[in-house]
Design a protein that fits this description.
The complex is a heterodimer of chains A (256) and B (310). Chain A is mainly alpha-helical. Chain A contains 11 helices and 2 strands.
């Protein structure tokens, strides 16, 4: 059975990868253009007037946040739209009738989301090299936070896809929840700059921990202790995985 | 004896209280070609949905080749190939990608999957279209693609939910030949269809579902034997005479067509004799409707009337 499951996982992952590569102009190009604009406008033009932040130029400070922002958006939207499209076109039934366990279904979609988001992250990093030189404080923390963030938001996208009943449902969450949380999660500023009350509020924003952890990996400065960031991200991953597993196993929105 | 499919007291109540299945018992022998018929909304698709894990059952037992669905779900799934009623493949993928993906989900290694994709796409005359996006195929090609996809893991039980809906007669006959060959090579086939001629031609055994209950489960032969009357249409040349056939219920439909109801024990020689005596020439003869169709309507009407009296 292990061989069967491995082949199934490989098949589903390849299918998901082919999907976003086939429509690369919709999946890979837009985040690169958007973040390039952020680099030019916020980093280059406005950033020069802001000066230093946490001991780094403003441009250097926002690079980790912008990479993370594109990773979050790409992983989330890849899985939510792919899963919902398959539900909508009914070709999710191919998976439901096949001997593919729920764990394999989840990982198949997550691998697709991770692949796209990491590819987008690499492209954004390459763009950032036109503005600032690459420096990495800790490769292991960079890799760990990148993987955990892409897994976490792929799982969040899957959850959205499970509940979604229309294409509107797939776009509402990124627009009204994910984007504000990302902007308020410390992409463009240090959380320590906020008034004490908002610093407490921001502790409930999971994106704060991802960006803080990744920024630590790149620059070596933190808003939140790195161990705490990793722990919180890990707890979110476990919780979302368990919820997705339960819902798919029960056939929520999939089986009548 | 191990059955390809064994269903015991299967019940399904949908959210909202609609009782789709009211306790179905069904056995399909290994190697059988079985027709599952019923009017729209009778419970055929729900039954198939439960067997293929697309619908959660409320209660009852489903065994496939001896594997209990509740305890050996993965083994059950491995035995079944499904050709659903609606096209449910990704329209943006190519024909070959679709069948290869399917093979992957069933654990068929890539090398073997490539071989099988050629075999089944050639059989269904789709090999030349292997690199074409599925959305660009014609309706008939899409149907054939669904069958090829279902065969990629070489299932022992193939379930076809109205596989020839919307397919032209020439292609339908090609598909019949293909399915017959598949069955002769050992694959058990369960077929639902609205073309009763198709069921009569292909299937050895038959089940009729009506309002969530199996009202008939027998061999095609014994079911057809239940037909007491058959209506035949004679194309005749009357030369102005009105035909009268003693002992038979007959009706002149128009100047050249006579409908005659013939009981099983009557035979039709007498009809010809009487018409010849009256100087009426019979040009041709045909059945008013398919025999199974007559029986099907009779059985389902009887159940509906029975229910109305309850």
């Amino acid at each position: 059975m292990f061989k069967l499951y491995f082949t199934a996982l490989k098949g589903l992952s390849v299918k998901e990868t082919n999907r976003y590569l086939r429509i690369w102009i919709q999946t890979l190009v837009p985040p690169v253009i958007t973040t390039s604009l952020y680099f030019i406008i916020f980093g280059n033009l406005i950033g020069k007037r802001i000066g230093e932040m946490e001991g780094f130029s403003y441009m250097e400070f926002i690079v980790p946040g912008l990479i993370m922002m594109s990773v979050i958006t790409s992983s989330y939207s890849n899985v939510s739209s792919s899963f919902f499209s398959q539900k909508f076109q009914k070709n999710i039934e191919e998976l439901l009738v096949a001997p593919v366990p729920t764990h394999i279904i989840i990982w198949g979609f997550v691998i697709g989301g991770m692949g796209r988001s990491i590819l987008v992250g690499i492209l954004v990093t390459i763009i950032s090299l036109f503005f600032v030189p690459l420096q990495v404080y800790s490769w292991s923390i960079v890799v760990l936070t990148l993987l955990m963030t892409s897994i976490l938001f792929s799982l969040a996208g899957l959850l959205n896809g499970i509940f979604a009943k229309s294409f509107d449902d797939v776009s509402i969450v990124p627009t009204f929840i994910l984007q504000p949380l990302t902007y308020l999660g410390g992409v463009f500023f240090a959380i320590s700059m906020l008034p004490p009350f908002w610093q407490v509020v921001s502790q409930f924003n999971p994106i704060v921990y991802m960006i803080s952890g990744f920024r630590f990996g790149i620059l070596g400065v933190v808003d939140v202790p790195i161990l705490f960031s990793v722990l919180i991200s890990f707890l979110f991953v476990i919780s979302l995985y368990a919820i997705n597993w339960y819902l798919i196993e029960k056939g929520r929105g999939l089986r009548s | 004896m191990t059955y390809a499919l064994e269903i015991k007291d299967l019940k399904k109540v949908y959210t909202g209280g609609v009782q789709a299945l009211r306790g179905i018992d069904l056995k399909v022998e290994e190697g059988d070609f079985y027709a599952l018929l019923g009017p729209n909304g009778a419970g055929k698709s729900t039954t198939i949905g439960i067997v293929t894990s697309l619908v959660n059952k409320t209660s009852g037992k489903v065994n496939v080749f001896g594997y209990d669905m509740d305890t050996h779900l993965m083994q059950v799934k491995l035995q079944i190939g499904l050709v659903p009623q609606e096209f449910n493949f990704s329209p943006f993928e190519t024909v070959q990608q679709i069948v290869l993906n399917q093979a992957g989900y069933y654990g068929v290694p890539r090398k073997e999957a490539l071989k099988r994709s050629e075999k089944y796409l050639r059989q269904s005359d789709l090999w030349e279209k292997r690199n074409v996006q599925a959305q660009k195929l014609s309706g008939g090609m899409k149907r054939r693609l669904m069958i090829s996809r279902a065969l990629m893991h070489e299932p022992r039980l193939l379930i076809l939910d109205e596989p020839t809906a919307g397919v032209d007669i020439e292609l339908r006959r090609e598909m019949w030949t293909f399915l017959k060959e598949l069955n002769e090579n050992g694959t058990t086939i369960i077929l639902t269809t609205h073309y009763l001629e198709e069921a009569e031609m292909l299937c050895r055994n038959i089940g009729i579902i009506q309002k969530g209950q199996l009202i008939e489960n027998t061999s095609m032969k014994s079911l057809l034997a239940k037909l007491q009357f058959e209506t035949i249409i004679l194309d005749i040349e009357t030369s102005g005479r009105v035909p009268v056939i003693k002992g038979y219920k007959s009706e002149l439909m128009d100047e050249g067509s006579l409908s005659v109801e013939v009981a099983r024990d009557q035979g039709i020689n007498e009809v010809f004799s009487q018409l010849t005596e009256q100087g009426i020439k019979v040009l041709s003869m045909r059945n008013k409707s398919n025999r199974l169709e007559e029986l099907f309507l009779k059985l389902t009407e009887e159940t509906a009337v029975g229910d109305a009296h309850v």
